[in-house]
């Protein structure tokens, strides 16, 4: 592998020893992006029950929050890949940060007018920024060092995405969730002026967190602008197939990784999107306490990332992925059929065991792609659209089941079975003909 710096000079990436420390700062900067987009995604888990209340939505309508963000991944994945090829990782990252920030600032007019459609547009813009960031940062972290340690490196970076999974629900519970919940009867009996003031106050609670988030994103973009990032380019061989958006799917392990990633992201978003609701309904917790439990779930997710990264030193990545899938299936059954606080314990356990799945699937899908790495990355990012489709299906099922939240968790159960197949069989690299 070679590095081409901004002056056009080339040299080999060191694979062993202390010389690799010169790439420590680029890796730290890239890792910060994992935390930032983790904050955005995990605040969505707070927004879904909050805007359901503030904008008077049903379950299916509330999942359009997920749809807006993750549909952007599907729309923007190809343009993001083109952007990287034309302008490089650094410029793509800066663009992603600025688009992300623009979406965060759009929360202010959305909250001031209590317009759900404007909230959804703001989330779509955020999703576009996240797509550019993830399409850039995931493969960059994977190739910033020896190929044989790409899974460990990607899991380490993604551990800070797990840190955000803990921090975001706590921030959201403190600054967004009010803890005030009124029944439909109480809302109907409330004077119109009082009701309007209450709903506007609830909607306005999102402004400060998103203003702060947008400001931080702009500051990080400025840091990236002034910092040097090496441009990573793999060496090619004459026998290598030419990059092509559809031809890359000839790699069957990539095709299966795209399928697995679709269902993984769908499962993760389903679990977190309805976590607060199931904590209230199944375990009898109030809104704020449920939000703090979501923070504990995030802590377990983060711990799973760090511990999983350690295990990957001793266990092959696809084997660990398969073991974690089996355990997640069992815990889903507990979440569906269990009662009381055990339901929350089961969901916390799922957070721990699914923590390594995204980066592991991603790195397994990119094995051997060489010059097709950017295109393969675009496909894997496009598969994140599962987070737009499956939660909507789950919300629809819950509405059909008369607001029985637990029944909806059959959808993530099915997802983990598909991922298990990928870990056992689909990840196998086959020769491209």
- The whole-number mean of residue pLDDT values reads 85
Shape: globular
Low-confidence stretches are 1-19, 234-241
Strand percentage, roughly? under 5%
Structural class: mainly alpha
Across the major sheet, the strand order is: 2-1-3
Our measurement of the CA-to-CA distance between the termini, rounded to an integer number of angstroms, reads: 24 Å
Helix content: over 70%
Q: Measured on Cα atoms, how large is the radius of gyration?
A: 21 Å
Biggest β-sheet description: 3 strands, antiparallel
Contiguous helical run count: 18
Run of helices and strands: EEHHHHHHHHHEHHHHHHHHH
Number of strands: 3
Characterize this entry briefly.
73% of the residues lie in helices and 2% in strands.
Task: Provide key terms for this protein.
disordered N terminus; mainly alpha; 3-stranded antiparallel sheet; 433 residues; 2% strand; single chain
